[in-house]
Amino acid sequence: MDQFRGFFSDGRTAEMRPAAVRLGGSTLSVRGEKGEALADWSYRDLRLIEEVYAGQPVRLRSKRGGDARLVVRDAQFLDALGHHARHLRIHNLQKSRALPRALMWGGATIATLVGLYFGLPILAEPVAAVMPLSWEERMGQSVRGQALALLARNAKECTAPEGRAALDRLVQRLASTVETRYTFRVMVVDHSLVNAFAAPAGYIVVFRGLIDKSTSGEEVAGVLAHEMGHVIERHGTESLIRQFGMNAILSAILGDASGIGSTAADIGTQLATLSYGRAAEREADRVGVAMLNKADIRGAGLVAFFQRIGKQTGGDDRSLFRYLSTHPPTGERADDIAARAIGKGNAMTPAEWQALRVICSVKR
């Protein structure tokens, strides 16, 4: 049994506890300084938070481990772990700082081509997980542009300085609670649509109508955290790969500014009006609520927003309340969010909230 030293966070607080990490026959076990059990993770559920290069620590999570995180700095750890969790080997780039990414992506591209014939939906998650960040960013830029052209043609970005500063502070406050390779770029668009969506690589769009219908900064924070959860878990990228296969990937490779060739409009529509599956929505809820908790922001905002908008629309999807139809809430999800939320603070000061409300104009 291999043993290493590391640091463990249970996900409920930002505290990183010293821990002993043991690689057993079927599980990775994490024990505290006094031998107390902190986690027992199945190898097949392990995921790397980011690729590992020479000199970088290994950051792990488990698909079934909630928001818990494990960090191990031993250079031999990932090699040892790879004998038990073979799916993590592709992320191990420690052996050479200059390892060409093209070699890795040659295999990924072949796998994708095979997937076109033998089940691309099955390969969507692993392909998205190894996609170079620069490719995913190109995809995100293209999709955001196409979605805006379809939903809010000629609508302007809202850039009132005080409102922009208030939004940036909120985004940074949420982003600082997670370890992710993405930089979140949140845009407010001057359009009455009550909606928000997240494109790949952290490109998030919030329409003015959603801010208008919110009654507090906590509601906007809840929506933002949920959308950031979709980004962190790569739901948009995976969905595009499942839906459009190589077209989505080739656009990222070539940097097709027009938006993934002949399917650009279809992909923009898909992202802008996407209804994720139940599992993806729950995962975004979980990540979003964990971010709110770590930022000490009250988590009731998202539930309150859903409930109030639902009453106002009467469930009519034909209205402008697109967010409700693309992120359908359920009573069970609302109860789960309420049970997980432990934050007690405000998302914004009163002055910041007022500035955000008028971000699209000086006076409204």
What does this structure look like?
By secondary structure, this protein is α+β, with helices and mostly antiparallel strands. The protein has 2 domains: 2-93, PH-domain like; 129-357, no CATH class. The chain is built from 15 helices and 12 strands. It has helices at 77-82, 101-118, 120-130, 133-151, 161-175, 208-213, 217-232, 235-244, 246-254, 264-272, 278-294, 300-313, 322-326, 331-340, 350-357, and strands at residues 2-9, 17-23, 27-31, 37-42, 46-48, 52-53, 58-62, 69-72, 92-93, 185-189, 196-199, 203-207. The strands form 3 sheets. It has a 7-stranded antiparallel sheet with strand order 4-3-2-1-8-7-5. A 3-stranded mixed sheet has the order 10-12-11. Strands 6-9 form a two-stranded parallel ribbon. The termini are far apart. Residues 112-119, 256-265 and 315-320 have low confidence and may be disordered.
List keywords for this structure.
alpha+beta, 2 domains, globular, 48% helix, three-stranded mixed beta sheet, PH-domain like, 364 residues, seven-stranded antiparallel beta sheet
Short recap of the structure:
By secondary structure, the protein is of the alpha+beta class. It has 15 helices and 12 strands.
Fold blueprint:
Elements: E1 2-9, E2 17-23, E3 27-31, E4 37-42, E5 46-48, E6 52-53, E7 58-62, E8 69-72, H1 77-82, E9 92-93, H2 101-118, H3 120-130, H4 133-151, H5 161-175, E10 185-189, E11 196-199, E12 203-207, H6 208-213, H7 217-232, H8 235-244, H9 246-254, H10 264-272, H11 278-294, H12 300-313, H13 322-326, H14 331-340, H15 350-357
Parallel strand pairs: 6-9, 10-12
Antiparallel strand pairs: 1-2, 1-8, 2-3, 3-4, 5-7, 7-8, 11-12
